[in-house]
Amino acid sequence: MTKYFPCLLLTLLMVFTQTFLVTGEGPAFLKSVKRNPMKTRTEKLSHFRFYWHDILSGPNPTAMKIIPPSANNKTAATAFGQVNMIDDPLTEKPEAGSKLLGRAQGFYGLASQEEVGLIMAMNFAFTTGKYNGSTLTVLGRNAVFEKVREMPVIGGSGVFRFTRGYVKASTHSFDNKTGNAVVEYNVHVLHF
Ligand SMILES: *[C@@H]1O[C@H](CO)[C@@H](O)[C@H](O)[C@H]1NC(C)=O
Ligand SMILES: *[C@@H]1O[C@H](CO)[C@@H](O)[C@H](O)[C@H]1NC(C)=O
Ligand SMILES: *[C@@H]1O[C@H](CO)[C@@H](O)[C@H](O)[C@H]1NC(C)=O
């Protein structure tokens, strides 16, 4: 016990100093919040499954190319450099007409010179039930021809404040003529 005493004292001193700096002498723009509103609730793990429809063709596309790929023909097969903006429906079942749960809004860029590898940055904006108006933010790497791709959920809003988690994406169908794809998303998130 005596061996650890100096360590303990130092830790206490550091905690005390930090608390003092933040709450006491801190600048006006920075304040610690004394009563954490999340503290009274316990964190839970939720699992969602839905289908993401990326439609590039037809009269009502939900994805559009906003930056063309690099003109360098060495990377033509991977479309390196291309960026698409998306407003993709999220549905309960793989069929396009099934119940709409929300939309995936954001963009993906073709970020690999060796394969079709995306960087995805999108918000799942939910429009149903208690999730109506809440969002989850996904930012990650998506090598689309791999069977299962994992990407981090880096945050959220509404009921998903302070969220963290991951998604697993697997292609349900892909039309190699139009580029249209339906992808199954399995989402695991910790939230309050
Ligand atoms: C790539 O581009 C170069 C220069 O424009 C051209 O000479 C070459 O034939 C092209 N290669 C392919 C595979 O298209
Ligand atoms: C979701 O919220 C919006 C805005 O508050 C509201 O107009 C809409 O009716 C709600 N939808 C559902 C299904 O609750
Ligand atoms: C598209 O898919 C069809 C059937 O699955 C296949 O025969 C064809 O080679 C594919 N085309 C390309 C360009 O990959």
Keywords:
192 residues, mainly beta, AOC barrel-like, eight-stranded antiparallel barrel, 1 helix, 9 strands, binds 2-acetamido-2-deoxy-beta-D-glucopyranose
Model description:
The chain has 192 residues and is mainly β. It has a single domain, classed as Beta Barrel (AOC barrel-like). The chain is built from one helix and nine strands, in the order H-E-E-E-E-E-E-E-E-E. The protein has an eight-stranded antiparallel β-barrel. A hairpin with a 6-residue loop joins strand 4 and strand 5. The longest helix has 20 residues. The radius of gyration is 22 Å and the shape is globular. The model has no long low-confidence stretch (mean pLDDT 89). One 2-acetamido-2-deoxy-beta-D-glucopyranose (NAG) binds next to loops. Homodimer. This is Dirigent protein.
Any chance you could write out the topology, listing elements then pairs?
Blueprint lengths: L4 H20 L19 E11 L8 E5 L15 E9 L8 E11 L6 E10 L8 E9 L5 E9 L6 E11 L6 E11 L1
Antiparallel strand pairs: 1-3, 1-9, 2-3, 3-4, 4-5, 5-6, 6-7, 7-8, 8-9
Bound molecules: 2-acetamido-2-deoxy-beta-D-glucopyranose (3 copies).
